[in-house]
């Protein structure tokens, strides 16, 4: 057992109440790792109070729901944050009120917050890291079928159904072990693939309005009135993020989605060129090939796209 794992287990063992958080606008790995860890803790320590926090994600409501947390809950609890690279993205600003803070993540550790950090950037997902944590705990942490389903969800989500290069031999070993538990893996694949008619029409809108440079940098802006036209909210717009990447002449792309306050959520993706530095310069961050950021106005959108064009043009 390495030092970090031992420290985490000691802190968990000595805490009677634990709150598990994750990042804002959660994806399958954020929810899978958050709810999966909570289930692992409940299964391993039945006498402890385990709670989860954050805003419920409507498009992933079938995965699970959050608890209503008070300041007093935090004051009594050890707080564990999964799959969240930096503190502004933690989906409850009261994370610092707890009796300790643990960061478990697979993004680059640009914001080294927490009493203890367990960060493995080479892992496919935070869900994969949690399986490793259990395997190194010498039986102190135990995965049941419900936890296995949630960790499997996270791995499938962050590897793009095992299409991305972050799916390693170890990822498949972890997945094979999770599949030994009883849960319906096919249902997860079906759920993740389902879209509404409005989401399908929005995907068509993206292809119709996509700008592609000669170098292969692409961009599209989705305004609030477009979301309203297709009867979609911000959560439901996530299905369009991967759409430009299906085009053979697109090497890297950015999808801008306008928020209620008329600022923009920025989704950066790439097939090779690193784009996380662009995200970091616009109040965001993430992986080399998949990052997120925020932009104030269309002037900043133009800046981001120009930065993306330059990155693609200089990529060898």
Automatic annotation (TrEMBL):
> Which stretches make up the DHHA1 domain?
229-313
UniProt domain DDH: residue ranges? 17-155
- Looking at the record's lineage, which domain of life comes first? Bacteria
Xref: Gene3D superfamilies: 3.10.310.30, inorganic pyrophosphatase (n-terminal core)
UniProt signal peptide: none
This entry's Gene Ontology molecular function terms read: nucleic acid binding
Q: Which InterPro entries match?
A: DDH_dom, DHH_sf, DHHA1_dom, Oligoribo/pAp-PDE_c-di-AMP_PDE
Protein name per its UniProtKB record? Phosphoesterase
Organism expressing this protein natively = Xylocopilactobacillus apicola
Lineage, broadest ranks? Bacteria, Bacillati, Bacillota, Bacilli, Lactobacillales
């Amino acid at each position: 057992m390495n030092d970090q794992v031992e420290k985490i287990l000691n802190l968990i063992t000595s805490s009677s109440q634990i709150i598990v958080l994750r990042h804002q606008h959660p994806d399958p790995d954020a929810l899978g790792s958050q709810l999966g860890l909570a289930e692992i803790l409940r299964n391993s320590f039945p006498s402890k109070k385990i709670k989860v926090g954050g805003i419920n994600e409507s498009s992933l409501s079938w995965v699970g729901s959050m608890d209503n947390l008070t300041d007093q809950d935090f004051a009594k609890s050890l707080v564990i944050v999964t799959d969240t690279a930096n503190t502004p993205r933690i989906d409850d600003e009261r994370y610092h009120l707890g009796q300790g803070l643990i960061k478990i993540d697979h993004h680059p550790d640009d914001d080294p917050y927490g009493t203890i950090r367990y960060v493995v950037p080479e892992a496919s997902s935070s869900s994969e890291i949690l399986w490793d944590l259990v395997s190194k705990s010498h039986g102190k942490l135990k995965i049941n079928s419900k936890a296995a389903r949630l960790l499997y969800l996270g791995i499938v989500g962050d590897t793009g159904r095992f299409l991305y290069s972050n799916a390693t031999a170890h990822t498949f070993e972890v997945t094979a072990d999770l599949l030994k538990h009883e849960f319906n893996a096919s249902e997860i694949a079906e759920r993740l693939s389902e879209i509404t008619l409005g989401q399908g029409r929005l995907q068509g809108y993206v292809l119709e309005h996509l700008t592609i440079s000669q170098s292969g940098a692409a961009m599209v802006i989705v305004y609030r009135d477009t979301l309203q036209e297709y009867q979609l909210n911000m959560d439901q717009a996530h299905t369009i993020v991967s759409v430009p990447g299906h085009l053979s002449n697109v090497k890297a792309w950015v999808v801008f989605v306008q928020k209620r306050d008329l600022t923009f959520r920025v989704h950066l993706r790439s097939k090779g060129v690193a784009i996380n530095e662009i995200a970091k310069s616009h109040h965001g961050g993430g992986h080399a090939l998949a990052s997120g950021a925020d932009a104030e106005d269309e002037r900043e959108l133009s800046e981001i796209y120009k930065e993306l064009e330059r990155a693609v043009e200089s990529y060898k």
